[in-house]
Amino acid sequence: MMRIAPLVVILCIATVVGLGDGAGCPMHAAFGRRSLKQVPPVVQPPLQFGYYATSCPNLTNIVAERVNFWVLQDIRTPGKLLRLFFHDCVAAGCEGSILLNSTAALQAEKDAPISATLDKFFVIDDIKAAVELQCPGVVSCADILALAAVKSVALAGGPSFDIDLGRRDGTVSYLAAATASDPLSTMKVDALVASMALAGLDINDLVALSGAHTIGEVHCTSFTDRYDPALNTPFPDAAFGAELQAFCTGNGAAPDFATLNLKTFMDLQSPNMFDTSYYVNLIIGRGVMTSDQDLYNDPRTQPMVNQFATNRTAFFDAFIASMLKMGRQGVLTGTNGIIRKQCWTAQL
């Protein structure tokens, strides 16, 4: 029988509980190194279609009615709600952290420079209040945001589809998460793909989700790079570029794009209709941002742009698939997270 010295026994115990690397332990080959991180986590339930069928059966109708109300006040609402959902998911997962206000101790995602143009937070607060009247303490802000985005697409003429629910709300929001993860308007495809990968999305999702820009707006300051010869990102349609420059500077009255703080639609053909014209614009060189136009310039993404420009069904199907995929990233379910009473604070 092999005798094991006391010191060796200590090393072996450390290995088994994950506090040592197993060196010097004769049982190391049998047990291997075990880290505390390798302890199986508690399995949380996945998102589900019809998650609130019994706990809040009228939820989708409430959300649809309130989104429709706000669309009647401002036809640009769908694009803004869709953008909120995207920024929530890509920064730290779809757990409603984009909705949280900063505190004295912590700056939130919504106060990051890249989040400065996000809008319609109050619409989500309004929907939450309406939902709380019928189903108090049941529906998360993260799910309300997801549903509002989906209903916005349909109200703008896009596909009508269901999204799986059961998200719970995060309790913290970090400015750095938005700064590190959100794609920039000046990025080309390589950088965009890398940015999307951080959110669990791929190049196909990049092209499909970019189609949401068909109902989006952009500040003039987001595409000043296209007028810098050193950056080599000019407008293929020079007349279109000149038209935008004139608009953004008040026909030359303002010294730069930032002075007037103007915005333009990313799809000037049908800015409030969720359709394929965004992709058509890329083909004819009328993509507003570098991150838009490079989808057509890059040979990896150009075939998808061509397909979506001419096949609405293909675009809608791809968009739905990517929305569902994005909506499952970084979610909190089961016993993780909370159900916030108000979407802007995690205080109970």
UniProtKB/TrEMBL annotation:
GO terms for cellular component: extracellular region. The active site is at H87 (proton acceptor). InterPro entries: Haem_peroxidase, Haem_peroxidase_sf, Peroxidase_pln, Peroxidases_heam-ligand_BS, Secretory_peroxidase. One of its GO terms (molecular function) is metal ion binding. GO terms for biological process: hydrogen peroxide catabolic process; response to oxidative stress. Residues 1-22 form the signal peptide. Keywords: Calcium, Disulfide bond, Heme, Hydrogen peroxide, Iron, Metal-binding, Oxidoreductase, Peroxidase, Secreted, Signal. It is found in: Secreted. Heme b binds at H213. Disulfide bonds join C56-C135, C89-C94, C141-C343, C220-C248. Belongs to the peroxidase family. Classical plant (class III) peroxidase subfamily. Removal of H(2)O(2), oxidation of toxic reductants, biosynthesis and degradation of lignin, suberization, auxin catabolism, response to environmental stresses such as wounding, pathogen attack and oxidative stress. This is Peroxidase. It comes from Ceratodon purpureus (Fire moss). The lineage of its organism: Eukaryota, Viridiplantae, Streptophyta, Embryophyta, Bryophyta.
